Each structure stands twice: as C-alpha cells, then as structure tokens.
From TrEMBL:
The gene is UTR4. One of its GO terms (cellular component) is cytoplasm. It comes from Trichoderma gamsii. Signal peptide: none annotated. This is Enolase-phosphatase E1. Its cofactor is Mg(2+).
C-alpha cells in the first residue's frame, strides 16, 4: 500500500480560488468577459421571468427596474472589481450555461488536483472560501481541466461573502469556524494569495500561509509572512511553511 502523504497537524484545508488554485487570468480574462458578453441577450430573454426575479431584486432600487441601468451598473462593478454579493450571484448564474456547454473549464494549477485528492484520501476536509458565490464555486470545481474534471465531489464545505463575510474580516473566519465547532481552530489552515486575508485568518486562530502562483503580483517584501509563501502545493511544502511561521511568530 502506498504511503499516505503527511499533511501535518491539519484536519481542514481551507482554500481560496483566484490566484491560489487557479490563475487570476481565468477569472479576469475569461469568466468576467464571458458574463458581460452574454449579459445583453440574457437580459432581453430573462428580464421579466420569475426565475430571474431573485437576482434582479437583489440589486439596488436604482437599477432593478431599468434594464439599461441594470446592465450599465453590472459593467461598472466589473470594471472596478467590486465584489458585491448581488453581482457575484448574477455572475455565477450567467456562467452556468458556459460551464455546462463546455465553453468554460476551470484551469486548475497542475499541483492542485493531486493535492486535493491526496488530502481527501488522507481523511482531511477540503473547504473553499472565495468572494465568488457558492453556486459559482461549485460550478468551477465541477468543470475543471483535471481528470476526472469534477473536483467538487471531494469538497466538504463552501463559503463566500454571504454565508461567511468579507474575506479580510477576522469575524468571517470566526463564522467559518463556527460551522464546524468540533474542529479546533489550530487544526485549520487557510491558503490564499492575499496577505490581508492570511492575516485575518490567523487572527481567528487558524493557521494560514500566503501563496505565490504563476501570474500573481509579487508579495510585498516588508510583510513578515512573505518569506514563507509557497509556490507549489504539496503536503511537505505546506507543513514546512506552517512550522516555520509558527516558529517565527512564537519566538
């Protein structure tokens, strides 16, 4: 029997998506433009449909009753990269057809599928926390470039800015922990390319490590955790970085 990989003390691996498990360019250059491209025809067909009412009514009053104003507001939010929950819900809805038709496939970094699969096989829980809506997260992981392409089956839980909160708020990570009270915060580790998110997670009691992945901007050299950033996801690299951070912060 093959030896199980050592994921150290951690029972839960909480993962960011954009810039952590898949390239930022997939979100910025593929997903966002796709949603904007299909938006006009979608609104023309669905504006008055009951199935669209929930998405439309989540928008501010100034936009929900005027189709042109609605579309302009969506384009403005995307241009400014505003992570409004009602926008994220709409984007996830717009991406559904693209994923299901095969036009959209999430290009996970090559080390991610074996990392997740091995962690799951070792009895670890894999959870996702992203600013994208939970339905959008599930679509992404169900339609990847991995083999097999559906990675969603090994994900234990999903969190976004609606059911957890903003990703740079400590309270959001406390909320996530409260969903699994049987697991000590010290048994969690969060991986993200955003140092503000890493800091917030650590303040909640979780362990957290910054990630530096292809296509990401360099991390600021003055941040005390930048030197421990991982560029490859393996059990050894995660365990070593976590141990090094713990040693430095306890010194």
């Amino acid at each position: 029997m093959a030896e199980q990989p050592d994921f150290g003390r951690f029972d839960v691996l909480l993962l960011d998506i954009e810039g952590t498990v898949c390239p930022i360019s997939f979100v910025k250059d593929v997903l966002f433009p796709y949603a904007l491209n299909v938006l006009p025809d979608f609104l023309a067909e669905q504006w008055d449909e009951p199935s669209f009412a929930g998405y439309r009514n989540a928008f501010p009053d100034d936009y929900r009753n005027d189709r042109s104003a609605f579309e302009a507001h969506v384009r403005d939010l995307v241009a400014r990269d505003v992570k409004a929950p009602y926008l994220k819900a709409l984007q996830g809805h717009l991406w559904t057809k693209g994923y299901e038709s095969g036009v959209l496939k999430a290009p996970l970094f090559p080390d991610v599928p074996p990392f997740i699969t091995n962690a799951h096989a070792a009895g670890k829980k894999i959870m996702i926390y992203s600013s994208g809506s939970v339905p959008a997260q599930k679509l992404l992981f169900a339609h990847t470039t991995a083999q097999p392409p559906d990675m969603s089956v090994v994900i234990s839980d999903w969190f976004d800015t609606v059911n957890a909160g903003p990703k740079t708020d400590v309270a959001s990570y406390t909320t996530i922990l409260s969903h699994h009270p049987d697991i000590s915060p010290a048994r969690w580790i969060f991986l993200s390319d955003n140092l503000s998110e890493v800091d917030a997670a650590r303040q909640s009691g979780m362990h957290s490590i910054p990630a530096v992945r292809p296509g990401n901007a360099p991390l600021p050299s003055h941040h005390p955790l930048s030197e421990f950033a991982v560029s490859e996801f393996t059990p050894a690299s995660i365990a070593q970085a976590a141990a090094a951070i713990a040693a430095k912060t306890s010194a």
